[in-house]
Amino acid sequence: MTTQPARVQAPLAELGEGPVWLAAEQALYWVDIPAGLVHRLAADGSLTNWNVGQPVGAVVPRAGGGLVVAVRDGFMALDPATGAVTMLAAVEQDRPENRMNDGACDRAGRFYAGTMADDERPGAGTLYRLDPDLTVTTLVTGVSVSNGIGWSPDERLMYYIDSLTHQVDVFDYDPATGAIDGRRRFATVGEGDVVPDGLTVDSDGGVWVAVWGGSAVLRHDPDGRVRETLKLPAERVSSCEFGGPGLDRLYITTAAGPGEQAGALFVCEPGVTGQPGHPFRG
Q: Which alpha helices (DSSP H) does the chain contain, by range?
């Protein structure tokens, strides 16, 4: 049975996003996009943060140590010991009005992340894949607000959200190459200013979708039907991710705006477990 989401003692965010659980550290990382901050919450409750100097849309661990962030200018390495950031692969240097947004790594250690215009202009963004050899591949163009990415437990499917479409889409996914094909609608979410944002996939194949403007996280079964709704005291729910020693806690990020706890980080126990996260292997 799902427990009610409770606030975690952590800083309020202007735009919290991209929670990721590092099992090796038993710690949660997430970002505050416009503030350029990467946050870390350890199991003992201690907090650390780093300012990367520009908007940051996603953070993932790096197999060789440290972190990789998707920032305004592209993919960069972050050294937690010093706070130094180093460019790995520039993206859209000719489009300063764009920035990178949400992203995630597949099991092979490829980092998928997309861009969007600061003014959310339709069709201005692109979904990219950063391979371990630091090659950047364009996967989807004409994206408006590139958002949640996740994979089915059997690695046959990749789920993806372009928020302004009001859809969660699904691709056929090749785990050997990282290629995607056969894009189609998985679920429709929201209308108007209520849109799907981040997502995560549990170990049973359930797809959990954060609903921006909807004060909720929805769990869809593998057929796309909504099976559960988690309500939160914040309207702008941005992303979610499983964590904890047993991957049985769902961490949820939110943004400033309507709601008595807007911008807070939340956690609940939804009665299912998540899939382990994966590092970038470059």
A: none
Chain segment 135-168, per-residue pLDDT in tens: 999 999 999 999 999 999 999 999 999 999 999 9
Cβ-contact 40, 27 below 8 angstroms: yes
Residue pair 254/236 in contact (Cβ under 8 Å)? The answer is yes
Phi, psi of 165 (to 5 degrees): -80, -10
Q: Residues 14-27: pLDDT tens digits?
A: 999 999 999 999 99
Residue with token string 């989807």: 140
The two tokens of residue 55 are 């908007």
- Provide the residue type at 4 as one letter: Q
Angle at 254 between CA 250 and CA 256, to 5 degrees: 165
Residues annotated as part of the active site:
197
The superfamily CATH assigns to domain 6-268 is TolB, C-terminal domain (2.120.10.30)
pTM score, two decimals? 0.97
Radius of gyration of the chain (CA): 17
- For the beta carbon of residue 217, count every other beta carbon within 10 angstroms: 27
DSSP state of 164: G
